[in-house]
């Protein structure tokens, strides 16, 4: 949008269509980080439980989505994939070309969202469930009319709940296979490590705590240490020591190949679902 001077982020009003857990996680993260005050965020829901969840940290809750759209500069669709088409089409008469539209709906392509909305100032974002604890891995793709300034705005909003990257939408199935489904793979790893600890004689609670913290610490090292994961692995692996004995066992079981296959298989399934 050439010639438009970007306005400060805290002057935008952000509205969520859909008041579920993901919308709540994003809103809480944005408020907690100070990126946007709660008074600039709105949503709609009739359930007292969901209303209370948002109102508890200062978000304005309307009775219907029409009010949210009419009072927002940025509209974030956070509804189930099965109903997003109906929701967008229903709101289309009230959507303005001046509004930036965002979708966090899994498996729904930009071209369809843009067609249903009647304009293409749209950004698709795929966060994952650790958004609930401010540690999301999110990826965004910009629609035809979305500007770089729009992208920077959304990067700041979603940066409040973790880390965000920009990528071509054609990569989103692979993103689903890795970061979308990936938390479940890691939960299996944590559970298995804890079971191993119990098998080796540790109390269950201690084993689970050690396993969870070990995965958290290793992930933090991989993110912040500035070293390749292979180098970090080598740093822990002494000649003839305990770690290499454990790694040898993992390699005999095809551990790395199994994880690689899991990502590829989930990617394939995502592709199938998005084409159905």
From TrEMBL:
Localization, UniProt: Cytoplasm
Iron as UniProt keyword: no
Amino acids binding NADPH: 65
Domain Pyrroline-5-carboxylate reductase dimerisation as annotated: residue spans: 169-273
E.C. number: 1.5.1.2
Keywords of this entry: Amino-acid biosynthesis, Cytoplasm, NADP, Oxidoreductase, Proline biosynthesis
Binding positions (NADP(+)): 17-22
InterPro entries referenced in this protein's UniProt entry, alphabetically: 6-PGluconate_DH-like_C_sf (IPR008927), NAD(P)-bd_dom_sf (IPR036291), P5C_Rdtase_cat_N (IPR028939), P5CR-like_CS (IPR053790), P5CR_dimer (IPR029036), Pyrroline-COOH_reductase (IPR000304)
Top-level enzyme category: oxidoreductase
UniProt key word rRNA-binding: no
GO biological process, one term: L-proline biosynthetic process
A cellular-component GO term for this protein: cytoplasm
Protein name: Pyrroline-5-carboxylate reductase
Organism: Nyssa sinensis
Organism phylogeny: Eukaryota, Viridiplantae, Streptophyta, Embryophyta, Tracheophyta
């Amino acid at each position: 949008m050439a010639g438009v001077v970007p306005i400060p982020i805290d002057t935008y009003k952000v509205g969520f269509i859909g008041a579920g857990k993901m919308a709540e996680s994003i809103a809480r993260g944005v408020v907690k980080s100070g990126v946007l005050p709660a008074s600039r965020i709105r949503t709609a829901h009739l359930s007292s439980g969901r209303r209370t969840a948002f109102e508890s940290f200062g978000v304005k809750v309307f009775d219907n989505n029409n009010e949210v759209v009419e009072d927002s500069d940025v509209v974030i669709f956070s509804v189930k994939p099965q109903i997003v088409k109906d929701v967008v089409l229903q709101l289309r008469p009230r959507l303005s070309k001046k509004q930036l539209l965002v979708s966090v709906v899994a498996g729904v392509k930009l071209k369809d969202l843009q067609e249903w909305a009647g304009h293409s100032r749209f950004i698709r974002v795929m966060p994952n469930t650790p958004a609930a604890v401010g540690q999301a891995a999110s990826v965004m793709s910009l629609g035809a009319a979305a500007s770089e300034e729009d992208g920077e705005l959304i990067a700041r909003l979603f940066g409040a709940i973790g880390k965000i990257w920009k990528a071509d939408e054609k990569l989103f199935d692979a993103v689903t296979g890795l970061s979308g489904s990936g938390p479940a793979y890691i939960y299996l790893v944590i559970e298995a490590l804890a079971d191993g600890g119990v098998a080796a004689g540790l109390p269950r609670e201690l084993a689970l705590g050690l396993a969870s913290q070990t995965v958290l610490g290793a992930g933090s090292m991989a993110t912040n240490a500035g070293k390749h994961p292979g180098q970090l692995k080598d740093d822990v692996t002494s000649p003839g020591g305990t770690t290499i004995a454990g790694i040898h066992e993992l390699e005999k079981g095809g551990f790395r190949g199994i994880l690689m296959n899991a990502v590829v298989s989930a990617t394939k399934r995502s592709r199938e679902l998005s084409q159905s």
